[in-house]
Amino acid sequence: MGVKISTKWLGEMRFESTNPSGHSLFIDAGEDNGGKSEGYRPKALMLSGLAGCSGLDVAALIKKMKLDVDDFTIEIDANLTEEHPKYYDKVAMHFHFYGNNLHEKKLQRAVDLSVEKYCGVMEMFRQFAEVDVKTFFHDQSA
């Protein structure tokens, strides 16, 4: 089954893109490229897609495993090549878990399952980038 989106030019460097969820997002270039920064940058949006895909996996596994997590964030730092077409050749993805009663072994298992088995966006990124994933636990009971 295919996924369909429609992306409409709104003039200058701005676009509106639909999503199968029924929501739309705006894409725009920065001022240095003729835009007004009134939307997402396409390449950065790919990184948000990667974080969101893996994040949804981990959130589902936290619920399924009944783990106690106050909060978690995913930080991504990516290197863009110099030559055109510019693409991400190295991606560092850091999971940060916060809480008073973190079950580190199970949380690491959740991250590993997403990264190695479930996240399709991760698999796509692996076709063109070296992806380095690290997990950090922030015990707040101290």
Explain this structure.
The chain is α+β, with helices and mostly antiparallel strands and 142 residues long. The chain has 2 domains: 1-40; 42-139, K homology (KH) domain (GMP Synthetase, Chain A, domain 3, 2-Layer Sandwich). It has 3 helices and 6 strands. It has helices spanning 42-64, 104-118, 120-125; strands at residues 7-9, 15-18, 24-27, 71-80, 88-99, 130-139. A 3-stranded antiparallel beta sheet has the order 1-2-3, with no helix packed on it. It has a 3-stranded mixed beta sheet with strand order 4-5-6, covered by helices on one side. Helix 1 (42-64) packs across helix 2. The radius of gyration is 18 Å and the shape is elongated.
- According to CATH, what is the class of the largest domain? Alpha Beta
CATH topology-level name of the largest domain: GMP Synthetase, Chain A, domain 3
Number of domains: 2
Overall, the morphology is elongated
Poorly predicted spans: none
InterPro entries: KH_dom-like_a/b (IPR015946), OsmC/Ohr_fam (IPR003718), OsmC/Ohrsf (IPR036102)
EC number: 1.11.1.-
Protein name: OsmC family protein
Enzyme class: oxidoreductase
Key features?
142 residues; 3 helices; alpha+beta; single chain; 2 domains
Summarize the structure.
The chain has 142 residues and is an alpha+beta fold. It has 3 helices and 6 strands. It is 31% helix and 30% strand.
